[in-house]
Amino acid sequence: MDNKILSNFLIISTLLLINLAVYGYRKREIPGARYFGYLILAMVIHTLSYAMELTASTVEGMFFWIRMEYIGASFYPFFLILFVREYTDDTKLFNNIIVKIMGIENLFTLLLVFTSKYHTFYYKSLGVDNTYGFNTLAIEKGVWYNIHAIILMFSFIYALVIFIKNYMNSKGVFKKRIGFMIAGFSIPMVTFFIYFLGFGPAYIDLCPFAYLLMSAMGIFGFFNYSTLFYVPINHSMILDSMDQAVFVVDNDDFIVSCNRNSKIYFKSLEKIKLGEGIENIMELKSYDIVDGLVCKIDERTLKFKIIDEKKHNGRIFVITDITEQELRKRQLEIFANEDSLTGLYNRRCFMEKINDSREGVFAILDIDHFKRINDNYGHFQGDTVLNVFARKLKRNFSEYTVCRYGGEEFALYTEHKNVNQVYKGLENFRKSVAKEDYPFAITFSAGISFYNEGNVNEGILKADEKLYEAKNDGRNCVKF
User: Pick the catalytic residue: 86, 299, 408, 458?
Assistant: First the structure.
């Protein structure tokens, strides 16, 4: 066995792996492609460094290159899990917290390898073996070496199980794509098992050699079946495409996922990390969030819909911006209930309110000789008179229900005063209107009547009679 041949073999494998890493980087917008690129880059570092280790002749030289290998190899579990999660859109087992813990373990492994001269956690001993006619690094495995190897084996098994599960549920070209992933990752997985269990050549790391076949298969799959395009649209893309704000919480109200719009509606989400509690959303602190809640946040009116996902042990919050709907609704209410000229209640709304009352006092007011105002000064001035009169009427009778009854007629009613009190109020108002400094004299006549539940119409007719009585008596007076 010639170490230079083996080293050249690994350099060829490195070149193929670089092609895969570049491909993954170029396709990084595809779910999983970015982490696939990182994983392959880790293999590049491992493979090239191991090629250099095989040509080294001293323990110091070999140990230097083994440390370089672990800059990539330490992070296999981390990048493999991240790739599988995004590629298959499966985050059930490995949530963000577990992935972070795995990343810390991988980083700790790298630290132990770089400091292994000072402890025996990773390597109990390092030596040189010349069994194959060239020097290889003879290692005795430490406790952490076995722990890290078990984590890597578990990561491989997890990836294979998820791939097989998706393979069984896929059809057509998607089945072929996931099939290539199963075949490609099975090669280094089986090779690593053989190496770790000691069935292969002693002190020869078989994994970098397996990458040659894996990379060749990967290149074939990518260019013939677009293997990386397994989940071209995942749940994150779907959520981000929605007009509503959406965030998902688990049973403990920890935020599991949120879309782009949720961070627009709730600015504090920009600073909140996944895994933190929903109570950290500052904009919602003053609200008891229930299904159907409508609240105003900043300039938006938002409506909440809460979907209980008992099967998945969580809840989905879908928040819709109904600002424009509420504005249109308010405008329709205004059109339906208010007089467009004066802003007072219109006759229809006024009658609904008076019919709902039990008893009270009703009054009809009519601006005297209003036709003369329109004829002499024009309709614009006539509208101005109606507006000024309406504002003054509303201001003086703020405790009453006031409306524009029709044309130059206005009406009001109250449930809290008697006829004499209403009469005194209208009489004082009549005198003040007559004193107003208009470009022309304005007076009004009014009729007042008491009504009770069941005879509202009778009360209105009586007030109308009193109004005509006031007009017949020369106008500018109040009758009851």
Answer: 408
